[in-house]
Amino acid sequence: MQISARRLENITIFDVTGDIDLANSPAVRKALLTELREKKIPRVIMNLQGVKYIDSSGIASLVEGLKASRDLQARFILFGLSKSAREVLQLSRLLKLFEIYENEEQALSNESA
Amino acid sequence: MQISARRLENITIFDVTGDIDLANSPAVRKALLTELREKKIPRVIMNLQGVKYIDSSGIASLVEGLKASRDLQARFILFGLSKSAREVLQLSRLLKLFEIYENEEQALSNESA
Amino acid sequence: MARRRLLLRLQLHSNPEVLCGVRGAVAPIASAIGFGEEDCRAITLALDEAITNVIRHAYGGKTGREIEIRFSKVNGAHADKPGLEILLTDRGAEPKPDALKGLPPGELRSGGLGLHFMRQSMDTVVHKRVGATNRLRMIKFIR
Amino acid sequence: MARRRLLLRLQLHSNPEVLCGVRGAVAPIASAIGFGEEDCRAITLALDEAITNVIRHAYGGKTGREIEIRFSKVNGAHADKPGLEILLTDRGAEPKPDALKGLPPGELRSGGLGLHFMRQSMDTVVHKRVGATNRLRMIKFIR
Ligand SMILES: Nc1ncnc2c1ncn2[C@@H]1O[C@H](COP(=O)(O)OP(=O)(O)O)[C@@H](O)[C@H]1O
Ligand SMILES: Nc1ncnc2c1ncn2[C@@H]1O[C@H](COP(=O)(O)OP(=O)(O)O)[C@@H](O)[C@H]1O
Asked: What is the ipTM score, two decimals?
């Protein structure tokens, strides 16, 4: 798994590639919480286009990001979900709780849901 | 691995999907030799677009097809090689001995090389 | 269970870094038995979650502990609908009573999804304590 | 060889149907160590060929015989360029003298490519007879 950040004005986009599992979900969690809680970035976007696999530990990290964003009145956005990532989120019954877009353009342009 | 035959006039096209390895290369060999030696089909074409992996046992089956076609003055043609299949044929230094095309149209239209 | 044929046995350490290798092994095995792509993904997820739980709960996050996995092809009621049995063995702590009940999904909780995923993905998920070992047996049949 | 860390141990029977599972396991392990895609494909091919040879030659095509594979991460001369060591053990026949020399590639021969593929794909390929077992050690380092 690789995670890298692109920092625009008041927005951070994380580009993630590879599988998210117990080996690296703590790194995802840390990256998200640093951006939201410490840097107080008001909009954090996860580009999951390169993520072909995510398990419950990965979902848990995304949930941490979502919870932090709610605490801080920030927005936490996902886009580019693979079929498999979507299936797993569906299985978790959390799909509707996340703000999800098809692509980066939509993730950047949309006003708060 | 799945192998199925489409039979046109004097031409058989084998559509192969899946990995070719020791578990199924004997089936590939048998299909080829039946078509060439028994049915005396003058042109046998292998559609390898769906083959993401082939090992030396698979290459050996293709070589059997090529040898039979030479014995019988038939044509034995490959098309749709994946990057990985091409690499393995390259490694075997047999790439130049096979008649290989990019796609089915070329494989069907071309006159003998 | 009519018949069982052992396909592959894996021994690994309780190290999250090998999860990817185990996932890589199970998907083509399931596919070779005849499962479709969605089922292969479900089986892969179930096994990943089971190993994750062994690492985190049975071994309390400690690395270097032994985990064994056996993949067997099984025949159920219908000879043409075989299944995959996965037997996971560890030498870690016994689960606390009721721990394996699992929590309802759909709540904003960072955790508690693994057992739900396993049960959703497989037909059978059974834990058994045998001596000093935990044995988790998961089975799924082709539909 | 400076250090070796066992990542995964596989035990399988000499059954061609499990080759796909072994390939599925090794590619992500190699990738996790840091090998690029082309190297991962080469390592997968080498291991497939090695197991194929054990099934066909050491066990004479008989199924149900034991094969063990160990994957270890190794550090070579450069700490930042680790490698993958694959140790394959079987209890089959000892190779005939000179059998493992291999044949030159590029000839229209149905066979004789496996050893060539293994040697082209890996940095080291060494066979050793130990008691009643054959041990094939293959190593490749990241370049
Ligand atoms: N292999 C195991 N050994 C001991 N306890 C377990 C095991 N698997 C699960 N549990 C218990 O069941 C609970 C729920 O597990 P799970 O649904 O996977 O979610 P999570 O692991 O995120 O808590 C765990 O918190 C743990 O208490
Ligand atoms: N594991 C092995 N045990 C015994 N003999 C072997 C083994 N691997 C290879 N050989 C011998 O080396 C020869 C060349 O092997 P290889 O290059 O893989 O081609 P092929 O297996 O197609 O003959 C084999 O024909 C066999 O005689």
From this structure: 0.81
The pLDDT tens digits of the residues spanning D29-69 come to 898 788 999 999 999 999 999 999 999 999 999 999 999 99
* pTM for this entry: 0.85
**pLDDT of B105:** 96
D98 and chain C in contact, CB less than 8 A:
no
The H or E element containing residue D139 is: strand D133-141
Going by pLDDT thresholds of 50, 70 and 90, the confidence category of residue D7 is: confident
Query: How many residue pairs from chains B and D have C-beta atoms closer than 8 A?
Result: 66
Instruction: Please give, rounded to a whole number of angstroms, the shortest distance from the CA of C114 to a CA of chain A.
Output: 6
Q: CA angle, corner D74, sides to D31 and C68, nearest 5?
A: 70
* Torsion angle (degrees, nearest 10) of CA B26, D47, C21, C63: 140
Does the beta carbon of C140 sit less than 6 angstroms from any atom of ligand 1? no
Cβ pair B56:D110 closer than 8 A: no
Cα separation values, D8 from A29, A53, C12, C23, C131, Å: 27, 21, 5, 12, 25
Of all helices (H) and strands (E), which one includes residue D133? strand D133-141
Mean pLDDT in residue range C64-77:
92
Identify all chain D residues contacting B94, using CB atoms and an 8 Å cutoff.
Answer: 105-106, 108
pLDDT tens track for A37-62 = 999 999 999 999 999 999 999 999 99
In this model, does residue C125 exceed pLDDT 70? Answer: yes
Sort B82 into a burial class: Cβ within 10 Å, 0-12 / 13-18 / 19+: middle
Contacting subunits of B (3+ beta carbon pairs below 8 A): D
Beta strand extents in A66-107 (DSSP E only): 75-79, 99-101
